[in-house]
């Protein structure tokens, strides 16, 4: 008997072992094509066994989804940190310290920086848009540099890229 499930199944070795340990004598393995997973058994499962099988599969799916979400958040945090580091490095090369703008830029970009560090990239875009033009200077905190950062985030998130600071 074949029991079929549809999902974006990735590494299913853990689930396969759990099914094997639960249904030792009757489980014959699995076959997978695209998003379709077929679990093969030597006989029809009883109602309680089907419930157990569905619990195993659903638990695997939930765990896999949580792992994917965690990996996406880790990736977003890493990307956000790279964006911050690149902005800082460029600011240093533009003379932020000599211009006496370190404190001003840090305070003006605090919310956006916090969002980037947490991987909250959509929030970072919103926070960048909220930086008032009165905080801009001629070298470090410019509309052009902030638009560049915003565009990096938009590209990472597969969003349409904003053409100008005023858009």
Q: What can you see in these coordinates?
A:
The chain has a three-stranded antiparallel sheet with strand order 1-3-2, with helices on one face. The model has no long low-confidence stretch (mean pLDDT 93). It has helices at residues 13-22, 47-93, 102-108, 110-118, 121-130, 143-156, and strands spanning 2-6, 27-33, 36-41. It is rod-shaped, with a radius of gyration of 25 Å. A hairpin with a 2-residue loop joins strand 2 (27-33) and strand 3 (36-41). It folds into two domains: 2-69; 72-156, no CATH class. With 167 residues, it is mainly alpha-helical.
Notable characteristics:
about 170 residues, mainly alpha, 6 helices
Biggest sheet: strands side by side, in what order?
1-3-2
* Strand coverage percent: 5-15%
How many helices? The count is 6
Task: Please estimate the helix content.
Answer: 55-70%
Number of E strands: 3
Q: What structural category do the secondary elements indicate?
A: mainly alpha
